[in-house]
Amino acid sequence: MKNLRKSLLLPIIGFISIQASGQDFLPPTLPWEGKSKSLIADPTDPWVTPGEITGLTESPSYEETMAWLEKLSESSPYIAINSIGVSEQGRAIQLVMVSKDQDFTAQELSTSKKPLILFQAGIHAGEIDGKDAGMMLLRDINVGEKLELLDYANLLFIPILNVDGHERKSEYGRVNQRGPKVMGWRTNANNLNLNRDYTKLETAGIKAIAQVINNYDPDLYVDIHVTDGADYQYDITYGFVETGGYSPEISSWLAEKFKPEVDQALKDQGHIPGPLLFAANGQDFTEGNIAFSFSPRFSHTYGDIRHLPAILIENHSLKPFEQRVLGTYVFLEQMIKSVGNHFDELQEAIASDRDQSMETVVVKFGFRDTPADSVEFLGVKSELVKSEITGNEYVDWKGEPTTQIVPSILMDKPVSSVPVPKAYWIPVEWAEVIQKWKCTG
Ligand SMILES: [Zn+2]
User: Fold this and answer.
1) Ligand 1 mean position to 55 CA, how many Å?
2) C-alpha 194 to ligand 1 mean position (Å)
3) At the N or C end, where does the chain have fewer CB atoms within 10 A?
């Protein structure tokens, strides 16, 4: 019996020691000293955010976040906070409205002459950068020196969408992510992934968002995540449906008007913006990057199918939390200016895409027969190493920048189409389906 105990204990001790130094297994960081560091408030500032107090190494809880935002709201005439739903565990999902004209109703915001931007953090609650960046930006707008940003646009900010996942927190919620110290969980309390739920509408979070989109009719929708997996130099990657989608004019506006300005702002502040990155071989980028065709169960493709300009931000998980939050701040600030500056063209693009008359609609896209192009890729050196534990090969990232030319693989070839129906006939007993249809606007 004693011997058995001993043999059981040893692997447990080994496991604990690996867990305690989990971050040591991450590849080396690339040195970074961006200008955007100057955005961080001094610890003596009465409006320093809970994240900034920790040097952007930690992120506040749901209660701390909402208490801080409530306090900001009480100190500024330009903010109002509303609950837009209740999570599976009973937490309020909060929407922060920011408007210099004090337009705080759906009616006022949807008919305002200013653009309306909806941005959300924490749909995957461990990927929380957008919450801390949004708090800093709202502070600078409302009690700092950036009130003029509200001349460009009205804002809707959801600091935490997956509120229950946010409170299911641990130091090991995302072991491949460099901070914050404690992070939330990917799925909701029922283990459903909110960013696969946009056309299923089974979660409180996505039902709430669908209603916000229906009621407020925003002009831009931004969903903020953090990547997992591969290493590269880019810190802020983002994208939208560029080809093979349902909103070609919106795609052009995003590519030609929006992206160049946001990329430049990020570069000016010391960040390295890049496209959404998915390694063709699932390991490194030697065989190219794939621009995947996602179904509308995802936020940005749901936006595309509704002709709502939509952007997916994926901050790079191997960059420190501080760098990711600051890059998100720079993105959001320039986003407000660019949408305001090009709003006429954006409205025309939205109207044009909404007015398309189509007899058939593509329901599935596949890979092109050949890569679209070759692109310059700001990678990190790596080698394949055989694992002594599994016997399989894994990628060992070396922390040394390298520039590669890699194939750009597009997934925009129509492979399946259906005629557009004149109407749908849904028998009354399918009440659940009817309810979901109502949610889709
Ligand atoms: Zn995510």
Assistant:
1) 24
2) 9
3) N
Cα(419) to centroid(ligand 1), Å: 33
Tell me, yes or no, whether 220 lies in a domain.
yes
Mean pLDDT by groups of 10 residues along the chain of 441 residues: 40 43 77 97 97 98 98 98 98 98 98 98 98 98 97 98 98 94 97 97 97 97 94 98 96 98 98 96 91 94 97 98 98 98 98 94 93 91 94 94 95 95 93 86 65
Q: From ligand 1's centre to the CA of 315, what distance in Å? A: 9
Kindly tell me the burial class for residue 11, based on how many C-beta atoms sit within 10 Å of its own C-beta (0-12, 13-18, 19 or more): exposed
Domain at 73, CATH number: 3.40.630.10
SS3 state at 35:
helix
Instruction: Name the residue type at position 218.
Output: P
Ligand 1 centroid, distance to 224 Cα (angstroms): 8
**Cα 228 to ligand 1 centroid, rounded to whole Å:** 8
Residue 46 alpha carbon to ligand 1 centre in Å: 32
| Residue 164 and residue 88 in contact, taking contact as beta carbons nearer than 8 Å | yes
**Helix-, strand-, coil-residue percentages of the chain, each rounded to 5:** 35, 20, 40
Interval between CA 226 and ligand 1 midpoint (Å): 6
> Beta strands of 272-412 (E only): which ranges?
273-274, 289-291, 310-315, 360-366, 373-386, 393-410
The residues whose Cβ lies within 5 A of ligand 1, an ion, are: 124, 127, 225
Neighbours of 92 (CB within 10 A): 15
Cα-to-centroid distance, 254 and ligand 1 (Å): 21
Q: Is residue 13 part of a domain?
A: no
Q: Is residue 311 part of a domain?
A: yes
Number of domains making up the chain? 1
State in Å: Cα 131 to ligand 1 middle: 14
* Residues whose CB falls within 8 Å of the CB of residue 108, separated by 6 or more in sequence, listed in order: 99, 101
Token look-up 């950068």 returns 129
Residue 364 domain-assigned (yes or no) = no
